């Protein structure tokens, strides 16, 4: 069982998940959305995606639209989506010093 302390400042800990099966939207016909919520401030970020986007696209968008503005994330909490658990993302987490936690290993009580 993993224990994650309540963060002391914004963007230390985020929750990430996908909303999929959306109707196509925008000039690029996005049909999915990556939802990122800061655990400290409860501030959400919604990033448009295509449900077929790769782990590389996910990592690039996460870097350009989130990390470049908030700084490196200490902890990411999410389900075991292959886009978050791919070798690419796992190596990026290691390089950035970010801990990835699967919801499978965290109880709702710990999520606060």
Task: Explain what this protein looks like in three dimensions.
The chain is of the alpha/beta class and 112 residues long. It has a single domain, classed as 2-Layer Sandwich (Nucleotidyltransferase, domain 5), CATH 3.30.420.10. It contains 4 helices and 5 strands, in the order βββαβααβα. A 5-stranded mixed β-sheet has the order 3-2-1-4-5, with helices on one face. The longest helix has 16 residues, at 55-70.
Which class best fits the helix and strand makeup? alpha/beta
Please give the domain count.
1
**How is the biggest beta sheet arranged?**
5 strands, mixed
Report the total helices. 4
* CATH architecture verdict: 2-Layer Sandwich
Strand residue content = 25-35%
Query: What is the CATH topology assignment?
Result: Nucleotidyltransferase, domain 5
- Radius of gyration (CA) equals 14 Å
Strand arrangement within the widest β-sheet reads 3-2-1-4-5
- The count of strands amounts to 5
Q: Which spans of ≥5 residues are poorly predicted at pLDDT below 50?
A: 105-112
Q: CATH superfamily, please?
A: Ribonuclease H-like superfamily/Ribonuclease H
How far apart lie the N and C ends? 15 Å
Basic shape: globular
Pfam families: rve (PF00665)
GO molecular function: RNA binding
Protein name: Integrase catalytic domain-containing protein
Keywords: RNA-binding
């Amino acid at each position: 069982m993993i224990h994650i302390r309540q963060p002391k400042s914004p963007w230390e800990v985020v929750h990430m998940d996908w909303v999929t099966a959306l109707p196509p939207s925008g000039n690029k016909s996005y049909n999915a959305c990556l939802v990122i919520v800061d655990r400290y401030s409860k501030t959400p970020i919604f990033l448009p995606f295509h449900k077929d986007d790769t782990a590389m696209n996910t990592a690039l968008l996460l870097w350009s639209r989130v990390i470049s503005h908030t700084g490196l994330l200490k902890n990411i909490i999410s389900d075991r989506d292959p886009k978050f658990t791919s070798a690419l993302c796992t190596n990026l987490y290691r390089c950035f010093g970010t801990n990835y936690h699967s919801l499978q290993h965290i109880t709702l009580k710990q999520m606060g």
